[in-house]
Amino acid sequence: MIEIKLLPLIGNFAENKDIARDIRIKKVIPALEKGEEITLDFEGVESATQSFIHALISDVLRKYGTDVLDRIYFKKCNETVQKIISIVVDYMQETE
Amino acid sequence: MRIHLPNSAFLGNIDPFIQAFDRSDLNKLEITANKKWISVHPVVLSMVVALGLTLNTKDIHFEKLEATSKHYLERMGLFKILGLKSEIRITEHEPAGRFIPLTKIDNSDGLTEFITEMIPLLHLEPEEAAPIKYVVSELVRNVLEHSRSDYGAILSAQYYKKSNTIRIGIADIGVGIKKTINKSHAAATHLEAIRLALMPGITGTTKREGGTEFNAGAGLFFIKSIATVNRDFFLMYSGDAMYKLLKNKPNEKHIRLHADPFKDRHSKKEGLPEWKGTVVGVDISLDSTKEFSALLDMIRETYVTTVRERKKEKYRRPRFI
């Protein structure tokens, strides 16, 4: 299990898509490729944009299918962040 | 080009200001102003700067200001950002709690830094700050990713105590919405391009539902939704077209989000003086800022339903003979 603490990387407002893409390419995808489980730790992140979450996970869902959600854990998300993640996961499933 | 700063131009009454914009002779800019009083939305100033930054300082002529409110333009940094000398003398105050001066943002890290610094300047409570940070991030990132402008995004904002509203204006001199949308979708006019850009799941980067790994085509729909739910104005002007989301009536209890912006209470115009790029103005009332998380529930429902319906439209049908 790999745990990625997001706060030091993105600050308390997760909006920088370039950083989201870097996290996905350099950390999330390599871990999944190795067959590992991942925890994305949102502790301290107050809010996020849909664009950030999309850049972080949409390609993962598209590449590996929604079964990948069994291997990704979203930890300590507040209500707002949970809802934005849910929106992205929902529409990605609708567009599969 | 010639642009006139009128007595009053806010999102509700901005149409005459836009119609009066004269874009003949692109090699110079003449800025004139009302002689008595100038009271304008930040989007007006962002537009002036976006035009001015494409020219050398010597090609910008700013008519001597007589209006008693001319200090406002100095305070918002209009002359400074354009490199113009101003004869207006003001006592500088800390900008905290009142406004964000005209700022050029031309890269991703610069935007992140700007958002961090912006909220303390506006002295907002966390629940008030959430939609404002969201709006600024998504709108400026749109400029950085799609406008192909050499000058980035020009942003300014002002807090209005009387209406307890933050007014934000962002302008760019890029390729405009139609050119961006047309890369993947057929929009015959600038107005149709604006309409498509505001629909959830439509992006110029791909025809594919769900977008690319980097763009979903949702940012503008989110912003329009924030404005709809909070009963605020939202304006987009690109090419010769303008779309304006009008305020919902205060007595309207159940507000619905529409995927199609033309189904919202709105006004639209075509045949306006062509704006090479995109202008966005938005008002965010702090009185009626709905809890952001409740708004997200509405967005989720509308978004998913829209994508599902659009997908259904593409279903092949059996042919019964």
SS strand fraction of chain B: 15-25%
Mean pLDDT of chain B: 90
Radius of gyration of chain A: 12 Å
Oligomer: heterodimer
The global form of chain B is globular
Under the CATH scheme, the architecture of one domain in chain B is 2-Layer Sandwich
Task: Enumerate the spans of chain A where pLDDT stays under 50 for 5 or more consecutive residues.
Answer: none
CATH topology type of one domain in chain B: Heat Shock Protein 90
Topology record:
The complex is a heterodimer of chains A (96) and B (321).
Chain A: E1 2-5, H1 7-10, E2 13-14, H2 17-33, E3 38-41, E4 47-48, H3 50-64, E5 72-75, H4 79-94
Parallel strand pairs in A: 1-3, 2-4, 3-5
Helix pairs in contact in A: 2-3, 3-4
Chain B: E1 2-5, E2 8-9, H1 15-19, E3 29-33, E4 39-40, H2 42-52, E5 60-62, H3 71-75, H4 78-82, E6 99-105, H5 108-122, H6 126-147, E7 153-160, E8 165-172, H7 176-181, H8 190-198, H9 219-229, E9 234-239, E10 241-245, E11 266-269, E12 275-285, H10 292-313
Parallel strand pairs in B: 1-3, 2-4, 3-5
Antiparallel strand pairs in B: 6-7, 7-8, 8-12, 9-10, 9-12, 10-11
What's this, in brief?
The complex is a heterodimer of chains A (96) and B (321). Chain A is α/β, with parallel strands linked by helices and 96 residues long.
Would you write up a description of this structure?
The complex is a heterodimer of chains A (96) and B (321). Helix content of chain A is 54%, strand content 17%. Chain A has 96 residues and is α/β, with parallel strands linked by helices. Chain A has one domain (2-94). In chain A, helix 2 (17-33) runs parallel beside helix 3 and helix 3 packs across helix 4 (79-94). Chain A is globular. In chain B, the strands form 3 sheets. Chain B has a 7-stranded antiparallel beta sheet, sandwiched between helices. In chain B, strands 1-3-5 form a 3-stranded parallel beta sheet, covered by helices on one side. Chain B has a two-stranded parallel ribbon with strand order 2-4. In chain B, helix 5 packs antiparallel against helix 6 (126-147) and helix 6 (126-147) runs antiparallel to helix 9. The longest helix of chain B is centred in the middle third of the chain and has 22 residues, at 126-147. The radius of gyration of chain B is 20 Å and the shape is globular. The model of chain B has no long low-confidence stretch (mean pLDDT 90). The interface between A and B is medium-sized, with 31 and 37 residues.
